[in-house]
User: Which sequence fits this backbone?
């Protein structure tokens, strides 16, 4: 449940951008490509910020996987734990978003906040790694990675990727700061990659080996902020029932119950559907899933999937 509802001068949107929308599948993972993609995302976000309060979250699957591979390639280097890798990717993507958004709406209006997200060490996700990270691989490359590094790999769409645990987000440590910044009129970029995963150890927060799903964290954040809408923007136009079959059809307006009756890929559309359902069920408001490129049309209900 939300912590408060206050009068606002403009509707508040929580906008979750997929990591694959910032670094496209099979695209060369360099900064130039990411800057170009982020520039497009920033133009979209600037349009949404005109008339709305905006809290932006983002994925990091391609980026955090790349950072892990780069570290593993350094001879003699100790492995970098995933909480640190997530923090690195949060800073990298947050900086690129702030740089481009600043050009669009003014740098003084944008704040990037490294965000800790509390998970439970007993979450069953730690025994079933299912979150795809890193670049797309062939089956041979994936099996070689598994053999050499002891990684878990699995099918993701038309390729293979590394899989890591993705526990459920329970608490956003910096929530009060995010709320204060949003209330003050800043565009807040936060909870990147689902947030830096930490668990309580007595009275201390300690990092854990995981990557939290950014859509589920976004839903938690949107509920806590009492946002007017949750927008989950990715590289597909809508939620598609029967994906890959002859009877495939995009869903335009749907209820959480109808979505929960379907089957959705655990590493891609599944968390988006679950996040949208959680927000709608908790607040009674609207969530939308659609293309980042056409975010304005998604918000207007012209395209995308509306969950109500």
Assistant:
């Amino acid at each position: 449940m939300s912590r408060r509802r206050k009068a606002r001068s403009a509707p508040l949107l929580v906008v979750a951008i997929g990591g694959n929308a910032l670094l496209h599948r099979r695209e060369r993972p360099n900064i130039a490509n990411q800057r170009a993609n982020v520039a497009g995302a920033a133009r979209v976000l600037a349009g949404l910020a005109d008339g709305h309060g905006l809290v932006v979250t983002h994925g990091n699957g391609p980026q955090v996987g790349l950072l892990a591979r780069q570290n593993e390639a350094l001879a003699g280097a100790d492995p970098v734990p995933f909480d640190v890798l997530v923090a690195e990717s949060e800073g990298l993507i947050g900086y690129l978003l702030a740089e481009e958004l600043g050009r669009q709406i003014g740098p003084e209006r944008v704040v990037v906040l490294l965000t800790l997200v509390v998970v439970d060490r007993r979450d069953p996700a730690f025994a079933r790694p299912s979150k795809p990270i890193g670049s797309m691989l062939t089956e041979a490359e994936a099996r070689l990675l598994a053999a050499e590094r002891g990684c878990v790999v699995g099918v993701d769409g038309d390729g293979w990727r590394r899989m890591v645990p993705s526990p459920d987000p329970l608490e956003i440590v910096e929530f009060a700061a995010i709320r204060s910044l949003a209330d003050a009129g800043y565009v807040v970029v936060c909870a990147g990659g689902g947030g830096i995963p930490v668990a309580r150890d007595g009275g201390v927060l300690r990092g854990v080996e995981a990557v939290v799903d950014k859509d589920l964290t976004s839903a938690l954040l949107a509920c806590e902020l009492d946002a007017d809408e949750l927008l989950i923007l990715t590289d597909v136009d809508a939620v598609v029932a029967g994906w890959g079959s002859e009877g495939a059809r995009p869903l335009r307006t749907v209820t959480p119950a109808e979505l929960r009756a379907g089957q959705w890929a655990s590493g891609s559309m599944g968390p988006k559907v679950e996040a949208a359902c959680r927000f709608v069920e908790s607040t009674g408001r609207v969530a939308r899933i659609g293309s980042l490129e056409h975010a304005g049309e998604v918000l207007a209900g012209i395209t995308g999937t509306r969950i109500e």
Summary: The mean pLDDT is 90. The radius of gyration is 18 Å.
